[in-house]
């Protein structure tokens, strides 16, 4: 935060940003990692530098409250935010220790705001439960970037950015459909995430809607795992026992997919193709090597955290997005769920998470 401004002028400036005050149409580079060079020790954190013509702009302090890193994708979210902030010399990133407990996270974000951050980025442990806190922060004059798990009230955030769970299922279904287009009476199975999660339901709905375009394909089985390697192995073993033959498998999550691949190898099955979900580095390595039934994965890109830092920086500097005519950042951004196959895996390897 620029110490030369008074607290009163800071609050006025924030309110202008929150509610659409005029801003200079300056640029923002909002892509994730696209370099074809990767660091195996830091999978998913390599960043592309901002456009060379972009000026640094005014100093901005960004508060980041992310999740507990108990899953590969969640860890990648935290790493993407850290790495992205480091490429901007004028950005200071204040990070709260990740937590899956709502009460703990509320205390963390309140501490960040009381410490004087200009913009707050939150991936909430529970979007609904955190809504009132985010709403209070917005009303007090600190803009909030809501990352992925959405708050229950659009007034609780200035901008939401996240993935497309329905699109994941839709694109997985279309990829499988095209691979099996000429197979008569093709059968597919689905290894989903936990059924109590809305995102699981959205992924399944998208998958089913895509398959409806292929009358030669029937989904013959669906079982739910828990987004862990252990559950993926156990549930996949059950699926293999129940279904003696099928042509394709869609697995919602690459962490549980690692266990599914173990079960598949142990059963000696290879008559089908597998499509994963989220975009882990291990999955991409298998796709590139073409050494298993895994032929593609559908992204739920953790680079959204890097883009959230870009959005927060733009918001704190009253900038718009490079390539858009508007003077302000959008109110929401839904990221595309790209299908990564052997044809394009080189491009996406740097975004793969460990």
UniProtKB/TrEMBL annotation:
InterPro entries cross-referenced by the UniProt entry: Peripla_BP_I (IPR028082), SBP_2_dom (IPR025997)
Gene3D superfamilies: 3.40.50.2300
An annotated Gene Ontology molecular function: carbohydrate binding
Principal localisation: other
Annotated compartments: Cell envelope
Domain of life: Bacteria
Keyword terms of this UniProt record: Signal
Every Periplasmic binding protein domain range: 62-316
A GO CC annotation given for this chain: cell envelope
Family: Belongs to the bacterial solute-binding protein 2 family.
Protein's recorded name: Sugar ABC transporter substrate-binding protein
Lineage of the species this protein comes from: Bacteria, Bacillati, Actinomycetota, Actinomycetes, Kitasatosporales
């Amino acid at each position: 935060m620029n110490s030369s401004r008074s607290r009163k002028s800071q609050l006025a400036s924030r309110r202008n940003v929150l509610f659409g005050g005029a801003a200079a149409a300056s640029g923002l580079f909002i892509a994730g990692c696209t370099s074809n060079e990767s660091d195996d020790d830091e999978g998913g954190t390599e960043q592309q530098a901002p456009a060379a013509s972009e000026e640094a702009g005014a100093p901005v302090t960004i508060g980041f409250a992310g999740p507990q890193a108990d899953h590969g994708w969640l860890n990648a979210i935290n790493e993407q935010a850290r790495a992205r902030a480091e490429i901007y010399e004028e950005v200071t990133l204040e990070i709260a220790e990740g937590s899956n407990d709502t009460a703990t996270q509320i205390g963390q974000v309140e501490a960040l705001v009381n410490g004087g951050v200009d913009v707050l980025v939150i991936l909430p442990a529970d979007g609904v439960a955190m809504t009132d806190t985010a709403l209070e922060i917005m009303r007090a004059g600190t803009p909030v970037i809501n990352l992925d798990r959405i708050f229950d009230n659009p007034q609780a955030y200035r901008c939401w950015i996240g993935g497309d769970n329905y699109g994941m299922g839709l694109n997985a279904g279309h990829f499988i459909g095209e691979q099996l287009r000429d197979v008569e009476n093709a059968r597919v199975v689905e290894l989903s995430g936990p059924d109590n999660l809305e995102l699981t339901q959205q992924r399944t709905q998208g998958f089913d809607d895509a398959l409806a375009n292929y009358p030669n394909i029937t989904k013959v089985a669906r079982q739910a795992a828990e987004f862990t390697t252990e559950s993926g192995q156990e549930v996949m073993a059950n699926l293999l026992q129940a279904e003696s033959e099928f042509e394709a498998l869609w697995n919602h999550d690459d962490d549980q997919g690692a266990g599914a691949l173990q079960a598949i190898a142990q059963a000696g099955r290879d008559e089908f193709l597998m499509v994963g979900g989220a975009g882990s580095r291990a999955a991409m390595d298998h796709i590139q090597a073409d050494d298993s039934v895994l032929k593609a994965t559908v992204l739920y890109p953790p680079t959204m955290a890097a883009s959230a830092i870009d959005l927060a920086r733009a918001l704190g500097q009253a900038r718009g997005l490079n390539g858009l005519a508007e003077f302000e950042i959008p109110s929401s951004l839904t990221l595309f769920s790209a299908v990564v196959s052997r044809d394009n895996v080189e491009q996406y390897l740097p975004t793969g998470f460990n």
